[in-house]
Amino acid sequence: MSARALGDWLDFIGRQHPDAIALGLERVREVWARMGTRIDCPVISVAGTNGKGSVCATLDSILRASGRRVGLYTSPHLLRYNERVRISGAEATDEALGESFAAVEQARRDVPLTYFEFGTLGAFWLFAREPLDALVLEVGLGGRLDAVNVLDADCAVITGIALDHMDLLGDTRESIGREKAGIMRAARPAVIADPDPPASVLREAERIGARAVLLGRDFGYRVQPGQWDFWGPAGRRAALAHPVLRGASQLRNAAAALAALDALRERLPVAMQDVRRGLAEVELPGRFQVLPGRPQVILDVAHNPEAARALAENLSAAGFARETLAVFGMLRDKDIAAVAQALAPLVTRWHLAGLGGTRGASSGELGRILAASGVAAPRKEHDTPAAAFAAARIEAGENDKIVVFGSFLTVAEVMQALAAGSGGSGNHG
Length: 429
Fold this sequence. Notes:
The protein is α/β, with parallel strands linked by helices. The chain folds into 2 domains: about 5-280, Mur-like, catalytic domain (UDP-N-acetylmuramoyl-L-alanine:D-glutamate ligase), CATH 3.40.1190; about 290-420, Mur ligase, C-terminal domain (Protein-Tyrosine Phosphatase, Chain A, Alpha-Beta Complex). It is about 35% helix and about 15% strand. It is built from 15 helices and 17 strands. The strands form 3 sheets. An 8-stranded mixed sheet has the order 4-3-2-5-1-6-7-8, sandwiched between helices. Strand 15 (about 350-355), helix 13 and strand 16 (about 380) form a beta-alpha-beta unit. Helix 2 packs across helix 4 (about 95-110), helix 3 packs across helix 9 and helix 12 (about 335-345) crosses helix 13 (about 365-370). The termini are far apart.
């Protein structure tokens, strides 16, 4: 089966569990134990509602700048599944992923695994076969019961905690924080980068004896004209250039990454030049990604209210535009109204994009929700993000902005349309 094409493997692993999401570690632990592999390098696990991807990308970039061989696991992907598994900055090949899936399939026997669980175990199998100096893991959903948590983190990082996936994690920041806190381990550092962490996170750190490293108490940052300073467990790093990742929240994310490296400095020391180079070279598509050219196009996967508010803040700081056109597509199980309302004061015209699949909201659904939420700006409905983007490009003047947001799926389809050399095609009605 290892010779099977990657697309066939992905179809196969998506059919091995009746549910897309089935939280719990028992099945994953059982199969991981059967696989008989182990990870021997320091592991940094990153959980949170927003900012996880940025922290992981920053950690990876700084550690690689220091000459280390780093494994990086993230999700979801934008264009290719291979993006999820990287070693020394290079995406895993189709062949390597197929081999890893075959190893999981051989070990799992009759144990049903979800798509994410199957992929996570495959990634771990690949990482275990490499001489890695460090492993950076983005937690998929929650923390305590997420497949990534089958590995013990040498350092846990918890970014901002907000309301998302409430059907699975609870409908308060306290309940969601309790799930995120599950990645912490006794006697090991836990970087808590939420400026106002839920009490449940602090209680869990105290209960298990984790070494909490708190934003504002144990580490932080100060913005200076044209630069910023970081202070943390290992002292102060001054006169840092702003991260190449754009947006106001990125300093907090960068500080969280530096605090994690400070906490592991005895095992993973990094020099000042490594930090500077890593911050300058970090890449993370789809997070307030400003494309070159006119009209200005901004891609952002913001899909929950907190991320949408951060996007609105970044747009407000990005300079005047005569018109701001939104290309907006979301999954129906997200808080569509709150996300739209966060951007409504800035958007002059909406191009609503339907998303496919059982979870995707149609453009008609989006239109009804916007109307009920009091969003008054003109709007047009389109079958797909590519069609919505094509229409926005026709309407936009060179001094306008087009902001594409609401889902990884929305951003991914527009990126594919751009890569194909067109604004997309489809129903512009």
